[in-house]
Amino acid sequence: MMLFGKKPQAAPKKTAAQYILGISSCADGAAAAMLRDGKVLFSAFEPPPGPGCGASAFPAAAVATALEKASEAEGEILGVKDMAAVAFCGKPQREYDRLRGEWLQAAPAGYGRFMETAPGAFNKRRLAGGLLAKELSAASWGEKPARLLYPEHQLCCAASAFYPSPFEDAAILSLDGPGEEACASISLGSGEKIKSLRELIYPDSPQALAGALTAYAGFGTESAWELFTAPPPADPARSEKFLAAMTGELANLREDGSLRLNKRYFRTAAGLKPDPARWRELFGIPARAGGPLAGAHLDFAAAARTAIEEIVFRLGAQAKRLACSNNLCLCASPELKLAAEGKLKAAGLFSGTWSQPYSAPEGKASGAALAARHIGLGMHRSTAYGARLGWGEVPEQVLPEETETPVKVSQAKPLAAGARLFYSAYFWVAVAPKGLNRPRPASAQEAATSFYAVRSSIYSAEDLNGPA
Fold first, then answer.
1. I need a surface site. Which of 156, 318, 364, 427 has the fewest CB within 10 A?
2. Structural domains of the chain in order of their starting residue, each with its CATH number
3. Which residues pair with 266 in a beta bridge?
4. 230/300 Cα distance (integer angstroms)
5. pTM here?
6. Distance between CA atoms of 186 and 26, rounded to whole angstroms?
């Protein structure tokens, strides 16, 4: 008879299939994915709360729906304790450390950037400090997960592209933006193993550069495809000058695909957004804001398309050299996926390709679950690999159920006055003084032949333990 304390948690149910819950939380939104015996059963995302909102970084509605789908598939009610593992994309403490370094580097000019990102960063840091287990408990009748894993951001991206692919081995190119320190990576996938080979460290991000060029040409994320279907330049000579400025002055692009952004043209205090005045000084034209694509703006768009295709081609060629595989798995933003259809496809470096099919948040959630299954739990992949594929060909596959944003998602509310006062005081007391006294990093050696960070290691189960 128990007089004090809580009732002990019941043992996990013996399920007919293995279930793994994946969770992600990033600037694009939060998401949850349910894996059933290695197949994505369900995935859904919740949109980002918006700048300066104090909403939780935990996708409670998507998690609850994922558990419901697992229960339907199993034929009995399942909770988080019945999952073989719950995997969270990224190391929250390391991501917070990166953001804190950003705040310190930009202080005191980065006050606006801090107020925009701090609420989400602090919430995500709390997930590393025990809040994640509490949120899972609240979504599942007070239960706690039997095993909680934290695969790195770049590993989740690589896993989401490689494990569902039909290849036994493949070069993996992840161009998904920053998580902890790395913002892009080249890896090798073989069987259920993934080996990290090279990384680009934030802020030298191919995604940031491609996004900035696409936006300056007048195309948003949803209309990025229009950049790659635009007409040829009106003045090829002027377009060549734009291209030289993009790959020589705006960014220092190396033959191996590594690059270094010229911080003079990006506002560090605003989160690496382009500096409109300096971009106009460099290119001699303002950003296109609607209207017909003609004249100098048409030449700029053609140069931007060529520059992005060249970056992806060089990264792909380096992945081929390092991984020595005829297959490529790609996890990237929409504009970079479109760029891969250009020069890289025409070069014929790879006989088979596979592109991660989910949205960014859902891809990270499913990647976290897949990494947990194959690396954390050591489960083997199916040996029924597909036949050799041509560029863009994919085998017949069953994609996860498409869902609308869960109806239970509550609208994010702006920070209360007291919370804004707290964050403001924290910035001026704890961040700004340290930022003023913080030595600026020495200028990079621009004569270096490569800007990659070398990391030649196979991910192991131990790498998934702990949030830091």
1. 427
2. 19-152+360-382+411-437 (3.30.420.40), 165-355 (3.30.420.40)
3. 274
4. 11
5. 0.87
6. 21
